Amino acid sequence: MSVGQIIIQLLDGSFTSIMIFFLTLVFSLPLGLVVALGRLSKNKILSAIVKVYISIMRGTPLMLQLMVVFFGPYYLFGIKIKTSYRFTAVIIGFVLNYAAYFAEIYRGGIESIPRGQYEAAELLGYSKTQTFLRIIFPQVVKTVLPSVTNEVITLVKDTSLAFVIAVSEMFTEAKAIAAAQTTMTPFIVAGLFYYIFNFVVAFGMGRIEKALDYYQ
C-alpha cells in the first residue's frame, strides 16, 4: 500500500480526531469557567462538591473516565448501550476532564487579580456581573492564555485515547492499517498529522497571545 493510499484511509480517522478536539474545546472552556466560579463560591457546600469533582477528574486517568462514561449507564442503571453512543461518550468524557483542568487555570487567573479592582469597580457603580465581565474576565483571559495553550496542545494528543471505547480516530485507523500491512508507515503518517495539527494550534494561540499583549 502506497503512502497516498494510507493517507486517504486515515482521512476518516483524522476528521474524527478534529471533531473530538473542537467539540471538547467548545464545551469545556465555558464549562471550566462555570466550575471555577463554583470552586470560588462562598457557598461552602457548592465549593466542596466542585473541589471533589476537580480532584477526581485530575486524579484519575482520562482513559478510565472514558470507560466509566461509556459503560457506566449499563453497569449502574442497566441502560442498554447503543453503538451510536460511543462518540457521545468520548465527548462527554473529554469535556468533563478538560473542564476540570481549565477550571483550575481560570481559578488561578481570577485569584491573581488584585482585590482593589473589585472595590474600585464597586465605587464606580458596577454590579458584580459587570465587574467580572468588563474588568476582571478580560484580564484573566490574558493571564491564563499560556496555560490554556498548553492544555489545548495536550488535547490534540489526547484525542488518540478515544480508541479505548472503540471510536475510530486517527490513531486507531493507523494501528489497524499497520497490523494489516505489517508496516510502520501509518504510524509515521499519524505522527506527522499530530505534529502539524499541534503546530497549527500553537501558531494560532500564539497569534491570539500577541493580539492580547497590551504593550505591543
How would you portray this structure in words?
The structure is a single chain. The chain has eight helices and no strands. The chain is mainly alpha-helical and 216 residues long. The chain is flat and about 70 Å long. Helix 3 crosses helix 4 (85-111). The chain has a single domain, classed as MetI-like fold. The protein has helices at 3-39, 44-59, 62-77, 85-111, 115-123, 128-158, 170-181, 185-211.
Corresponding CATH superfamily: MetI-like
What CATH architecture label applies? Orthogonal Bundle
Question: How many separate domains?
Answer: 1
Stretches with pLDDT under 50, minimum 5 residues: none
List its traits.
MetI-like fold; 8 helices; 216 residues; mainly alpha; flat
